[in-house]
Amino acid sequence: MTDGTAAAAVAVVGSANVDLVATVASAPAAGATVLASRYEEEVGGKGLNQAVAAARGVPTALVASVGDDPEARRVREHARDRGVDVSEVRGAAGSHTGRALITLFGGDNAIVVAPLANGLLTAAAVDAALGRLRPAVVLVQFEIPEDAVEAAALWCRGAGARLLVNPSPVRPVAAEVLALADPLLVNLGEAAALAGDGAPGDDGPGLARLLAPRVRSVVVTAGPAGAFVAAGGPVRHVPVPERVEVVDSSGAGDAFAGHLAARLAAGDDLAAAARAAVAVATRLVATPRDRR
């Protein structure tokens, strides 16, 4: 290992971006222009954000691809300063670090991601990185190529590591990846998309029951309703610990995923890990972005 970090308990295989964030009074309609009341540029990406969240609990490494531009150094420094091992964050020659265009309005958000260097993360690079890191838990999301996700899943199968699959942004998932997911971590919309035609889009317990036979375990997050967990038995409800006013929902899903991975790596069972993750996400949405 490099960077002076401990061996990784969690490896997050995913994206690293620079986020371009505009706050507006309301979402623009098609063809309309609105003026932002606030604009910021921040380091983000689902992979990096989840790694930062996991690193608050256990030693965590990020496996990612960045460009050969100045933003790549900014990404590495941001992650390293927050305790993430960046020894497996590789530069892609001739490419730009990924970008995310984020619009915040009324406590909600809309996001467009340009993968750029994230799209150059290869299966071979993922397999080699995980072989060096030897994590107990691997967390993947879908802002990276499908073959990189599959390489992480196959490495977990061979090494006996636990695989967390967060299919966001949602797309079809290879059957062999789904079969190894422990858990499959999805919100209501993602769960409905994966469950197929006719799935109840607002029924967390029902969606968890539909997906459970296809995976080792499943966690369906449901915003203010908390989460629903199925792991070889009845669906269990994990409620939010307290009702809060939502100030900014951005980043809540990534915080949940990272903390869930960390708690599982620390030895919690899935229900206990989900309770801890729900509590973290609940506090986050009630906290203004500039105070996080």
Automatic annotation (TrEMBL):
Domain of life, source organism: Bacteria
Keyword Membrane included in the entry's annotation: no
Gene3D superfamilies, sorted: 3.40.1190.20
Pfam families from the UniProt entry: PfkB
Domain Carbohydrate kinase PfkB: residue ranges: 9-284
GO molecular function terms listed in the Swiss-Prot or TrEMBL record: kinase activity
GO CC, alphabetical: cytosol
Entry keyword set: Kinase, Transferase
Biological process annotations from GO: phosphate-containing compound metabolic process
InterPro entries, A to Z: PfkB_dom, Ribo/fructo_kinase, Ribokinase-like
Transferase in keyword set: yes
PANTHER family in alphabetical order: RIBOKINASE, SUGAR KINASE
Protein known as: Ribokinase
